[in-house]
Write a structure and sequence with these properties.
Photosynthetic Reaction Center, Chain H, domain 2; seven-stranded mixed β-sheet; two-stranded antiparallel ribbon; extended
Length: 254
């Protein structure tokens, strides 16, 4: 039978199979090139020296993205290594060994306190307005009637000591949720992540850090606005406390 043959013994099924195999191979190569736009080339876990880029099959040409609302352009991959200076040292000399913070644990930037150098402008909504702002700056948004309004409630840290009082709420206008609590510590005013807080009827418990540590939290530079960079630092600061706020948190549960 030669029905369906194109040339000799090559029929339509063989052409379709070969075409699919070639397409799939090219798709895998394309995906491997695209997924290496950020975080590559990898670096040696001991020396920190960059590994080989991997050649043309593993390395894509730079792609430029135009940011919305006139925030400029960014290109990836950048080929540059971002400077990373962490106040910590490796416990052992092997790849994957944990780091131990040196000095101020909240400034070390390791473990749960790790952060990324995000853009130094506010997260914007679809209309170009800052997404996260004080609730008083947004008309029509209030705490649900059946929920406890944290404003005016005392805040207690991991050591059960009073850290301050909630004075304001920062909300996400795009998501209609509370993102940060404004806490007056008596010496300064800081923002704390709402996701880490437990709101009771008579108090707010934020056991990520001790009461004395609240005053050291990063604060936004501009009134009524918080940048992505500042958000990252605030969350990292309080995240640090889950492991380093108290010595017993470094030990196993059993």
């Amino acid at each position: 039978m030669t029905n369906g043959n194109i040339v000799g013994t090559i029929d339509a099924a063989e052409v379709a199979l070969g075409t699919f195999a070639l397409f799939f191979l090219l798709l895998v190569v394309w995906l491997r090139r695209e997924d290496r736009r950020e975080g590559y080339p990898l670096e040696d876990s001991i020396t920190g020296s960059p590994d080989s880029e991997g050649g043309p099959i593993s390395t894509a040409e730079a792609k430029t993205f135009i940011l919305p609302f006139g925030k400029g352009k960014v290109s990836f991959p950048t080929w540059d290594r971002e400077p990373v200076n962490i106040a910590a040292k490796r416990r052992e000399n092997f790849g994957g060994a944990p780091y131990t913070p040196e000095g101020d644990v909240f400034a070390a930037g390791v473990g749960p306190g790790s952060y990324a150098n995000r853009a130094k402008f506010a997260d914007l909504d679809a209309h170009g307005n800052p997404r996260i702002i004080p609730i008083g700056d947004l008309a029509g948004m209030n705490v649900a009637p059946l929920s406890t309004d944290p404003r005016g409630l005392p805040v207690y840290g991991a050591d059960d000591a009073k850290a301050g009082v909630v004075t304001d709420l920062w909300v996400d206008r795009a998501e209609s949720v509370i993102r940060y609590l404004t806490i007056d510590t008596g010496t300064t005013t800081v923002l704390a992540p709402m996701a880490m807080a437990i709101v009771r009827r008579d108090r707010v418990i934020l056991n990520a850090v001790n009461a004395a540590d609240f005053a050291g939290a990063p604060v936004p530079a501009a009134a009524g606005e918080i940048t992505r960079y500042e958000e990252e630092r605030i969350v990292a600061y309080f995240g640090t406390g889950y492991l380093y706020a108290n010595a017993d948190r470094l030990e196993p549960l059993i």
